Amino acid sequence: MRFNEKELVSLSRQPSEMAAELGMRGPKKGDVVKKRLVKLVVNFLFYFRIDEEEPIGALLLEQCRVEREDSQSFSITFLDEAERKYLFECDSEEQRRQWVDSIMKASYEFMRKNLIFYRTEIHRLTGKDPLEQYGISDETRFQVNNGLRLMPRDTSSL
Amino acid sequence: MKLHEKILTHYLSCTSPVDKEGYLYKKKERNATYQRRWFVLKANLLFYQDRPADRHLLGVIVLEGCAVRHSEPDGQFAFSLVFEGPGLKTYRFAAGDGQTQESWVKALLSASHCYLSLLVRDLGRQYEEAKQQQGSGESRPSSSVSALKQSTPNFLFPVQGPTAVVRVGRSFSAGTVLQAPSIPTKVVAKKSPKLWPRRNAHVTPLNGPAPLYGEWPLVDFDPLEDFSKLHDYYGQEVKKAREEWLRSRRAEEEHSDGDLIDLG
């Protein structure tokens, strides 16, 4: 699948509040913990070899589960598959907490849910739709009850 | 760089709703012909494939750091995604009619994570104020810090999230009704440093010139504090661009002949 790699690499160079050297272990059997520069930008988690400019990879933080593994480490599980579980080792409990919190809140879907909540509540409290002033009240992505449902697709051939 | 594709395709196929889908013509970079593709927009990702029923995805475009522009010089109902930065691409599209074009432009303008992030923060503030007014029965906008400190369930307070300091270019405004409310909704009180981090932690060292991200347009207010002003600012620009485009289209229609899109 093609993707806009240059643009994504460029995105990975944004200054980020959440960027740190963490121990990172991949999901495959035999993967070991390696020191990586891990960086959270929008809903992507980029990871770099230390002092390299271009990231090794990018993980989309949607439909994933972030959880505490122990006091100083957390994991991210993708596709609901244990085989796709990434482990991250932090330097402190506080750092671990911050990462778990940030990753969860970086998800687009999480933000969308908040938006819909606020929109509904503001409308309930004030009688006004807060999105009207921006002219986006009709946008599908902000609908309270989004009727558009994509049928689950069989992606096994991808 | 490896993009873990399965994560993207899994996200695309999961039951959360799609934001927009439909046929568009995508211009090939090399020979400037258009190819018809089925596009699916979900969150800040624009996927494309040959046909809707296809299992094979041709590609995806991550929609961060790009501006959406009408680009009539490219052809009728044309628009483009312009990624701003040295060596970055411009993707060119054309719709089948004006309505489809407008609809896609509007959807793409509000697709970025950055845009959503600012919108959520703004609405979060409005929500706190609305609750405050409800509680105290006051009619004037509250400016107290205590409104922000009010405890809310954890998942409803995204303000602590990471700062997506991504330059969005002109992708904020929705293109049509862009009048900001006359009563400013911004909270006057200074925010605690935690909510609006300014320091740049850990930027990967670069050899080349860094793109000018993180730099907001030169306006005289802090865009993170007053989203509606920023929205209005971009809105004016887009309004102007639309007016010019409409004018030139009318002029064009008087001279138009034949297909402007080469479907050969």
TrEMBL record, chain A:
InterPro entries (alphabetical): Boi1/Boi2-like, PH-like_dom_sf, PH_domain
Residue span(s) of domain PH: 15-108
Top-level taxon of origin: Eukaryota
Any Gene Ontology CC annotation: early endosome
GO BP terms: endosome organization; receptor recycling; retrograde transport, endosome to Golgi
Pfam families: PH
Transmembrane segments: none
PANTHER family, per database record: PLECKSTRIN HOMOLOGY DOMAIN-CONTAINING FAMILY J MEMBER 1, SESQUIPEDALIAN
Protein name: Pleckstrin homology domain-containing family J member 1
The organism of origin for this protein: Perca fluviatilis
UniProtKB/TrEMBL annotation, chain B:
Source organism superkingdom: Eukaryota
Compartments where found: Early endosome; Recycling endosome; Golgi apparatus, trans-Golgi network; Cytoplasmic vesicle, Clathrin-coated vesicle
Domain PH: 17-113
Cross-referenced Pfam families: PH
UniProt keyword annotations, A-Z: Cytoplasmic vesicle, Endosome, Golgi apparatus, Phosphoprotein
GO cellular component, one term: recycling endosome
Any one GO BP annotation for this protein: retrograde transport, endosome to Golgi
Protein's job: Plays a role in endocytic trafficking. Required for receptor recycling from endosomes, both to the trans-Golgi network and the plasma membrane.
Family: Belongs to the sesquipedalian family.
Protein name: Sesquipedalian
Origin species: Perca fluviatilis
